[in-house]
Amino acid sequence: MSNQTIEPVMNTYGRFPITLVEGKGSYVWDDQGKKYLDYSSGIATCNLGHVPEVVEKAVQEQLSKLWHCSNLYHIPNQEKLAQVLTENSCGDQVFFCNSGAEANEAAIKIAKKYGHDVLEQDSPLIVTFKNSFHGRTMATLSATGQQKIQKGFTPLMPGFDYLPFNDKKALEQLKEKKPVAVLLELVQGEGGVIPADSEWVKQLESICKEQNILLMVDEIQTGMGRTGTLFCYQHYGIEPDVISLAKGLGSGFPIGAIIAKEHVAKVFSPGTHGSTFGGNPLVSTAGLATVKHLTESTVLEEANTIVEYIWGKLQQLVADKDQIKAIRGKGLLIGLEVDGNAIDYVNKARMDHQLLFIVAGTQIVRVLPPLTTTKAEVDHFIDIMNKLFN
Fold first, then answer.
1. Ramachandran region of residue 278, left (φ > 0), alpha (ψ -120 to 50) or beta?
2. Structure confidence by residue, pLDDT tens digits, 8-40
3. Domain 20-38+299-388: which CATH class?
4. Does the predicted TM-score (pTM) go above 0.85?
C-alpha cells in the first residue's frame, strides 16, 4: 500500500489556494481572517449578495419546521414559488430540480417528449449553438457547443446539432433540419460573455414560430436579475416556450427549475420526470424569499443604476488601459477581453488586492458583482483595476 497521501476529494476543480469561511453582502473572509471583495458572486449565484437577510430569516424559520418530505406530497412554498415565477414570466407551469445542469436536462427531456407526443417525430432533434455551455451531464455536455468540454466523454448522446451563434444566414438551416427545439443562451457566459444580437434573436423566434419549433432559453446564469431584468429574454421582447433557471434562484441554496408554457408542460405527466430533492421545503423557501425580494423590492431598479455606473467606469478603464482590449456583456454579467492570459490577472487580483473575479476563456475576465453592490464598492473595484492593469 502506498504511503502517498491521497486527497479525499476528487481533483475536478482548479481550486484557488484560499478557504472561504464567511460572507456578507459583497465581501467574503477566508480562514486567515483576510477580507475579499467578491465580484464573482459564487459564479452569478449570490445575486443578492452573501447571506441576504431576507433569505436568511425565511430559511431560519423553515429550519425549525421541515427540511424535506419528497415530491410525493404537496409543498406549500414550492407552489408559492411556482406561482411567483409564472406571474413574472411568460410561462405557465414550473418543474423544480437541484441545479442548472438538471434544469437543462429537464428542458431536453420535455422537448424530446413534445417531439414524440405532439409532433410524432421518431428522433426529435435539438439545435444548440457553437461556443455554448449548458452543463456537464452527458446530455447537457452533448448539447454544449464546445469540443473542449466534450473531449474525453465520447461517444456523445445523439440528437443534437449546432449552428453558429449570431449568424443570421445559418438560421435558415432550421427549416431544413426541422428540429423539435432550439436551446440557447442569450449571453454566452462560459463561452466568453458574448451577448446575442437583438435582430438575430428576433429572426430566430420568427422562424421557430413559423416552423413550430420550441424556443428554449437557458437562463441559468442570466436569470434572476443578473442582466438588469428578472429574465434576460425580457430585454429582447421574445417569449420562450421553455426557460431554464438555477444559480441566482436560491441565493446559494441548490435549486433549479424550468418554466414552460402550458402546451409544452402538459407532456410531463406523473412518472415521466421527477426529482427526490427538487424544490423541497428548505430550498423552495430560499427561492421564494429570493424571487419575492427581486420582484417586490427596489433591488432591480437600484441594480440598474449600478449597471450604468460600473459600465461607465469600465468603459473609461478600457479607454485608458492598453491591456484591456474590449468590454462586453449585459447588466452585471461583464466580460473584459485582456491581453495575455486572463487567469494571470485573476490570480494577481486575488493575491495582491483581495479582489475575486473569474475567467470566461483564456483571454476573458468575467466580472459578476452582486446586484446589491454599492457605488462605493464599485469605486473600490475600479481603484483595484487601475492598479492591476497599471
1. beta
2. 999 999 999 999 999 999 999 999 999 999 999
3. alpha beta
4. yes
